[in-house]
Amino acid sequence: MPVVFVRVDDRLIHGQIVEGWVPFVGADAIYVVDDEICLDESRCRLMRMILPSGLGLRIIATAELSEALASDRLNRVMILFNSLNSLVSAVENGFSMGNINVGNIHNLRGGHQITPSVFLNKNDVTLVKKLHDMGIALEVRDVPDGRCHDLFKLVCHEDVRR
To answer: What H or E segment, with its residue span, contains residue 13?
Structure first.
């Protein structure tokens, strides 16, 4: 089972994902990976309701990701993380992927604007640097035909300006 796309997007399933990214990467299943969201029945139910028929959905904890991927040999999977924290947790639990898309991290946690759709607080900056040190590239791109930016370089540039 190939993982065809991995994205950090605090909106999770929404129009850009379903209408833009899913067809662009040819995904036929989405995994939402987050330790809190997988326990929130109403949020899980809502995501299942808004997903188009024919597109599979699994909502799982970060520690379950590697095992879930190993057991799913039929689908082309898009993985959505709610936050950089969830991504780091999954990586620390054995998930591996060289290039991750960062689409939206909104300014709900006291962040500094890095791009129009990405706001990072001090913890997020630390996580970006940690992921970079682990060999994981983070690209910022909101839509498939959008301009791509290296998040680590943007963060380092922001650090230099401060």
So the answer is: none
DSSP letters, 93-106, are TT---SEEEEEEB-
Indicate the pTM of the whole model: 0.92
Give per-residue pLDDT as tens, 103-147.
989 877 778 899 989 999 999 999 999 999 999 999 999 999 999
Give the integer Cα–Cα distance in Å for 146 and 104.
13
d(CA 152, CA 138): 7
DSSP-based three-state secondary structure for 5: strand
Helices (H), the chain: 15, 22-25, 41-50, 65-71, 84-92, 122-133, 151-161
Least Cα distance to 9 among 112, 118, 82, 59 occurs for 82
Domain ranges (residues) in the chain: 3-161
CATH 3.10.290.10 fits 3-161, yes or no: no
- Dihedral of alpha carbons 84, 88, 89, 91, sign: positive
Closest CA to 28 of 61, 3, 50, 45: 3
